[in-house]
Amino acid sequence: MDCLFCGIAGGEIPSTKVYEDEQVLAFRDIDPKAPFHAVVIPKRHIGSAAEITPENSAVVAHIYEVIAEIARREKLEKGFRVVTNCGEEGGQTVGHLHFHLLAGRNLGWPPG
Fold first, then answer.
1. pLDDT band at residue 1, thresholds of 50, 70 and 90?
2. How far is CA 1 from CA 59, 61, 88, in A?
């Protein structure tokens, strides 16, 4: 298995699931940066935001719908942040498109 998140999406690597449907999986980050920190991924491999095309972009809209649903379920009404890193200089450490959903504390700006 070459991709960590493909392994998680395929059930080969365990995770603490927050949400799952046919297209998307959300799970708790193993190194959380906030009291609530989930990672939301498309199950189909897309390497990064740089690889989003007209053919695969619908999953990104669906991911944001899922993020809104998770925020409702987890009662994140005080606010949350959604982050995606792209490429080495952008801080991407896993080569699979993913979105961090962070909440539960004041998330200052600039982020780092």
1. low
2. 23, 27, 21
The answer to whether 39 and 98 have CB atoms below 8 angstroms apart is yes
Q: Is 98 a catalytic residue?
A: yes
Catalytic entry in 37, 96, 98, 100:
98
Q: Are 90 and 22 in contact (CB under 8 A)?
A: no
Phi and psi at 24, nearest 5°, equal: -135, 145
- What is the CA 26 to chain-centroid distance, rounded? 6
> How is residue 53 annotated by DSSP?
-
pLDDT in tens, 34-48: 999 999 999 999 999
Global pTM reads 0.94
